[in-house]
Amino acid sequence: MERRSFLKKAGVGLAAGAAVGLTACGKSEQTAAPAPAPAAPAAPAVQTGSPSIQWRMTSSFPKSIDTLYGSAELLTNRLREITGGKFDIRVFPAGEIVPGLQALDAVQQGTVEMCHSCSYYYVGKDKTFAFGTAVPFGMNARQMDAWIIGGGGQELLDEFYNAYNVYSFLGGNTGVQMGGWYRKQINTLEDIKGLKIRIAGIGGEILSRMGAIPQQIAGSDIYPSLEKGTIDAAEWVAPYDDEKLGFYKVAPNYYSPGWWEPGPVVHFYVNKAEWDKLPKEYQAAFRAASREAHIQMTAMYDHKNPQALARLLAQGVKLQNFSNDIMKKAYDVSRELYAEEAAKNPAWAKIYTEFEKYRKSQNAWFSVAEAGFDRFMQSVR
User: pLDDT digit string (tens) for 249-275?
Assistant: First the structure.
């Protein structure tokens, strides 16, 4: 995608959106709307005498990553509203109670009642954890929702998480992420060899097999590492979050797509014993509030990312796509890795078999309507 093309489309899209909004809001109806049905008496949010409960939630994210961190705050605020303040959960940013990548451990051990985290942070325990968030060349955000909510994914994940003493609840999705920031252009498979890139998890393992040198570096250390040339590239999230960290100042080549994170789900993990003690109405309130937080995160990233990308392009960022050769090689390597893992890891094999069936079915459906419509709309000015 060219910088000029994106900016032009963004401008046209915003203008068209504004026009549609004014038309819809300003239209006067010629016929009177039917009278609304009498409202049913409002049911109390909680039963009289419901207990006051206080929990702690540790987040894997700092407050500065406000869209990710904000989903936890939305959950807790909603629960206070629904329960009249009786179910109160206090959120702690990464590092205040435990480091961000130890959030799940804290819940498992009962140090805190719950956390807000990504399951693929814990693939060091078992690669099967990746399925809860994202596997390279997996499903996009809508497809992940379909799998977890309607396609049996939640049941498979529940069975796996049972060994870790937690329940999981949808808590957000960033949408497909970007492919990261590079000090130099990455055009061929040869350019991958020897590339020192900040990336973790299964995506890092795939790039390693392609000749790259993955590095695990904390977010606060990425910029100075890029600036000094300690690393050649780094992946983070997407334009809105990436812009805050200033990577474009030292690594101006911005690549897409982040094939290792096509639809990464964030979860609320709750200690099983603590969940089982909750009154049923509190459990219902939690489910409703967590689902709202889940939907809001994707919507806000979809809202914020186009604006952030336009600002980045205005700063001279060079937006590029990975070549088809790089994408195809990474895809082939991912299939090899998954087959190897299935042969030695029964937990992986069980979920992967069902996940792959569902992915193929979803892609077949999306190719019928979504993809064709998207291709046309992206081609028009």
Answer: 999 999 999 999 999 999 999 999 999
pLDDT value, residue 217 = 82
The secondary structure of 155-200 as a DSSP string is HHHHHHHGGGTEEEEEEEE--SPP-EEESS---SHHHHTT-EEE--
Give 355's Cβ-side CA count (13 Å radius). Answer: 25
The span from the CA of 212 to the CA of 227, in Å, is 19
Chain centre to alpha carbon of residue 59? 14
Instruction: Find the DSSP H helices in the chain.
Output: 3-26, 66-82, 103-108, 130-133, 141-145, 153-161, 189-192, 201-209, 219-228, 239-245, 272-277, 280-314, 324-344, 346-368, 370-379
Tell me the mean pLDDT in the region 217-232: 90
Q: Is 7 helix (H, G, I), strand (E, B) or coil?
A: helix
- C-alpha closest to that of 246 among 181, 319, 154: 181
41 pLDDT more than 60: no
175 phi-psi bin (left φ>0, alpha ψ -120 to 50, beta other): left
Using the structure block, give the residue that is written with the tokens 């325990």.
Answer: 125
pTM, two decimal places? 0.87
Which candidate, 79, 73, 89, 75, places its Cα nearest to that of 46? 79
In angstroms and rounded to an integer, the radius of gyration of the C-alpha atoms of the chain is 22
Q: What is the pLDDT of residues 17-30, one digit of tens each?
A: 333 333 333 333 33
- Mean pLDDT for all residues in the chain: 90
Report the SS3 class of residue 128: helix
